[in-house]
Amino acid sequence: MEGKKFSILDRIKSFKYAFEGLKFFFVNEHNGRVHFGAAFFAIGLSFYLKISNLEWIAIISVIAVVFTAEIFNSAIEKLADAVTLEINPQIKIIKDLAAGAVLVTAVLAALVGGIIFLPKLF
Ligand SMILES: Nc1ncnc2c1ncn2[C@@H]1O[C@H](COP(=O)(O)OP(=O)(O)OP(=O)(O)O)[C@@H](O)[C@H]1O
């Protein structure tokens, strides 16, 4: 908030709330569990195939990007549902846009994973 004094305690609380958000995502959101499984698989495969440092950076980055998009998507869905649960054409566009953003990151992750893993597997 504007003009509020800096407080270490407030910063710690912000972290606590952020972790509460992550916990909610992984426990309650089905997509969260699916992405967690996919990330676990990709990291396991990366260790197995002994990928390079640069390849690790690419894999970790796309995992983080997909999670970030999916967490924002969940937040937007929750916000939209808080506005109205009635069928609403604007809510449809808002939710479809958020889902589209997740799809873009998922395609990116699949391409990066394919480029790194496929030549090492076949
Ligand atoms: N209130 C609404 N009005 C109009 N269309 C909606 C509404 N709510 C959802 N939709 C449509 O249904 C789709 C799915 O919405 P929903 O909220 O169920 O998300 P979801 O993709 O099933 O998410 P999740 O599986 O993570 O719960 C949306 O992308 C949108 O096209």
Automatic annotation (TrEMBL):
Protein's UniProt keywords contain Kinase: yes
Give the record's keywords alphabetically. ATP-binding, Cell membrane, Kinase, Lipid biosynthesis, Lipid metabolism, Membrane, Nucleotide-binding, Phospholipid biosynthesis, Phospholipid metabolism, Transferase, Transmembrane, Transmembrane helix
Q: Which GO terms describe its molecular function?
A: kinase activity
Q: Which residues cross the membrane?
A: 34-51, 57-76, 97-118
EC nos: 2.7.1.-
- Lineage, top-rank taxon, reads Bacteria
Entry membrane topology = Multi-pass membrane protein
Pfam family for this entry, one: DAGK_prokar
EC top class named in words: transferase
Entry's CDD domains? UDPK_IM_like
- List where in the cell it is found: Cell membrane
InterPro entries reported for this sequence: DAGK, DAGK_sf, UDPK
Family, similarity comment? Belongs to the bacterial diacylglycerol kinase family.
Protein name per its UniProtKB record: Diacylglycerol kinase family protein
The record lists the organism as Pedobacter jamesrossensis
